[in-house]
DNA sequence: CGCCCTCTATGACAGCCGTCATAGTAGCGG
DNA sequence: CCGCTACTATGACGGCTGTCATAGAGGGCG
C-alpha cells in the first residue's frame, strides 16, 4: 500500500483523521490511532509532544488540505466545468463512499468541531482553517466559471454547508437521500446565478 | 425557573441534550448530567435502566420534538408566511444564540450522529427519527405556502442541511457569517416557484 | 403498626484514558 | 572506539468512565 510507504508520523495523522471521522474525537483513543496506523506507541510522544491535541489538530489540517486538493482534482477531470457539476462531484464522493463502504464515517472537520470536548482552543482554530482551506478553491473555481467574485465566497459557503449538513443527515438516516436531494435542488441554483435579496 | 418545576427525570433528559450539544456524547458524563440537572444520582438507574444509551436517545428525541414545535411557533408568529421567512426564522434562532451566548453549543442531533462512538444502534434510529420529526412540519408548511408536495420534502431537507452545515461552520469560525450567508443565498431560491399571494 | 412501592444515597468495581518516566536501540559522524 | 541524535519499548500513574450492588428514605394504605 502507498500508505505504509509513508513514515510513521504521517500514518498516525492519517489514521487519526480516519478514526475521528468515524467515532468522534473523544471516543478515539491514542492507542486506537497507534494500532490503526501500525505505528510504534513509543513514538507518539516523540512526534507529537503536544499530546492528543496536537495530533487532532494536524489531522484536521490534513483533512482541510485533502478537501482542497480534491476540489482541484474534480475540476481537472471535468471537461466543461460548471458550478452544478462541481457540486455534483463533491456530493458524489460521499454517495459513492456510503454506497460502497457504509455510513460509518463522516467529515473529520465536523467531528472535531462538534466534539471539541470543551477545551482545545487551538482545535477551534484548526477547524476554522480547514473550512477556509476548503472554501478557497471552491470560491476561486466559481469565479473562474463566471460567478461574480462578490458572490463566489457566499456560494461556496452555501455549497459546503449544504453538503456537510446532508452528510450528517445521510449518516443518521443511513440513506443517501439527503445527499442526492441537495445536489438536485441546489445544482440549478448554482448555475443560474440567482440574484440575492436586496 | 420553569425548568426546575419539571420532575427530575425530565430535567435529566433536558440537561443531557444541553450538555451533548455542547461537548458531544462521549465527552458528556452521566455525573455531569446529573449535576447539571440538580438531580439525584441515585435515580439515574431507576429512571434510565437502559443506561447512558437510553438517556442519550431520549435527549435526541426531545431535541427532535423541540425543533418541530419551534417550526410551528415560527409559523404562528408570522403574519404572512413564506419559505424564505420561515428559513430566516430558523437561522435567526441560531444567530441570536451565538451572538448573545457565544458559540459553545450546536445541534444535539448532529452531535449524537457524529459522535456515535461506534456502537449504539438505537441512537442511530433516534437521530434519524429526530431529523424526520423536524423535516415533517417544515415540509408541511411549505406545501401550505404553495410549494408542490413533490418538492416540499426535498426543499425541507435542503433547508435543514444548509442550516446544520452552517451551524457547524459558524461554530468553527466563531462567526455567524455562514449562517447569514445561507439565509441570504437560499431565501430567494425557496420563494421562487411559489405563486405570490392569491 | 407492617407492607409495598417509588425514589434516593453511597460506594465500589473493572476498565480505559492521556500523560509521563525510564530505558533501550539503531545509525551516523568523528 | 566515543558521543550524539532519532526513534522505539514498556510500564506505571492518577483520574475519570459507565455500571452495578446494597442499603435506606418516604409515603400511601390496609
From TrEMBL, chains A, B:
HTH tetR-type domain ranges (all copies): 16-59
Residue ranges of every copy of the Transcriptional regulator LmrA/YxaF-like C-terminal domain listed in the record: 83-184
InterPro entries: Homeodomain-like_sf, HTH_TetR, Tet_transcr_reg_TetR-rel_C_sf, YxaF_TetR_C
Superkingdom in the source lineage: Bacteria
Keyword Transcription (UniProt): yes
Keywords: DNA-binding, Transcription, Transcription regulation
Any GO molecular function: DNA binding
Protein name per UniProt: Transcriptional regulator, TetR family
Species for this entry: Streptomyces pini
Amino acid at each position: 500500500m502507498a500508505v505504509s510507504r509513508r513514515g510513521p508520523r504521517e500514518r498516525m495523522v492519517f489514521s487519526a483523521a480516519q478514526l475521528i471521522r468515524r467515532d468522534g474525537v473523544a471516543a478515539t483513543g491514542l492507542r486506537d490511532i497507534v494500532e490503526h496506523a501500525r505505528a510504534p506507541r513509543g513514538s507518539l510522544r516523540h512526534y507529537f509532544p503536544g499530546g492528543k491535541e496536537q495530533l487532532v489538530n494536524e489531522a484536521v489540517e490534513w483533512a482541510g488540505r485533502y478537501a482542497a486538493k480534491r476540489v482541484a482534482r474534480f475540476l481537472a477531470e471535468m471537461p466543461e466545468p460548471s458550478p452544478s457539476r462541481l457540486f455534483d462531484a463533491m456530493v458524489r464522493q460521499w454517495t459513492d463512499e456510503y454506497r460502497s463502504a457504509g455510513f460509518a464515517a463522516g467529515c473529520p472537520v465536523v467531528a472535531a468541531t462538534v466534539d471539541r470536548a470543551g477545551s482545545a482552543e487551538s482545535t477551534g482554530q484548526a477547524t476554522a482553517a480547514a473550512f477556509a482551506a476548503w472554501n478557497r478553491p471552491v470560491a476561486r473555481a466559481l469565479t473562474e466559471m463566471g460567478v461574480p467574485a462578490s458572490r463566489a465566497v457566499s456560494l461556496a459557503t452555501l455549497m459546503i454547508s449544504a453538503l456537510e449538513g446532508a452528510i450528517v443527515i445521510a449518516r443518521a438516516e443511513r440513506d443517501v437521500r439527503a445527499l442526492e436531494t441537495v445536489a438536485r435542488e441546489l445544482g440549478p441554483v448554482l448555475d443560474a446565478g440567482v440574484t440575492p435579496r436586496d
